[in-house]
Design goal:
This protein has a four-stranded antiparallel β-sheet with strand order 1-8-3-6. The protein contains seven helices and twelve strands. Helix 6 crosses helix 7.
Length: 209
């Protein structure tokens, strides 16, 4: 999405476009903020979530370089029902107003198809994650998350037949995404490693089975 939509990459918009830089823990928008733009991540990571009535933070997604967020504004929703917060030391964001996005899509049918396909996949994935958070135990949530991680970032090692996953998440990120604590995550990961299902280290997981 970044390659297709970022105005900085298009001659027509390049001169009048600049990235916005945020520091760690800065909010890009809050719940109930007006929704007039979508955003592309040029560098860094962004956490998307919301707060329950009791103040509990629910993490819907952690997005990385090249990804799009705030997409509900594109669908005509006037107010945000989630927050977006930077979680890297420095994060560069490419803001894209809705009119500009509509103009880009109006002049490019292939782009329109790709955007709608992306939105459909994003909503389907988020819906599945929320169902897991609501109805499944912690170990099941972790296993399903690892399956998604393998699908998104994995590649097969021809010599061993194992699948290697190099991913952008920290242990804290993963714990937040499956709504558990880091100690519990470590216990579950160690159980999977002792069962010889996988091996893990920082930012890499090797699936044996």
């Amino acid at each position: 999405m970044f390659s297709l939509l970022c105005p900085h990459k298009l001659k027509k918009f390049k001169k009048n476009h600049a990235f916005t830089v945020y520091q760690k823990k800065d909010f890009i928008y809050f719940e109930e903020d007006s929704a007039k733009q979508v955003y592309l991540i040029a560098n860094g990571k962004v956490k998307i979530g919301y707060y329950e009535k009791d103040g509990t933070e629910i993490i819907k997604a952690i997005l990385n370089k090249g990804e799009l967020f705030g997409e509900k504004a594109f669908l005509g929703i006037d107010k945000r029902n989630e927050f977006a917060q930077c979680i890297d030391k420095t994060t560069e964001i490419c803001p894209l107003d809705i009119d500009t996005m509509h103009n880009l899509m109006r002049n490019n049918k292939n782009l329109s198809v790709k955007v709608y396909k992306f939105l459909g996949m994003r909503f389907k994935k988020l819906e599945r994650r929320l169902q897991l958070l609501l109805f499944k135990d912690t170990k099941t949530r972790l296993v399903e998350f690892l399956k998604d991680l393998r699908e998104d970032y994995g590649y097969s090692c021809t010599n061993t037949g194992m699948i290697i996953v190099k991913h952008p998440y920290t242990q804290k990120d993963i714990a937040n995404l499956i709504a558990t604590s880091r100690p519990t995550l470590n216990i579950l990961m160690n159980e999977l490693q002792e069962s010889e299902i996988l091996q893990f280290s920082r930012n890499q997981i090797v699936f044996k089975n």
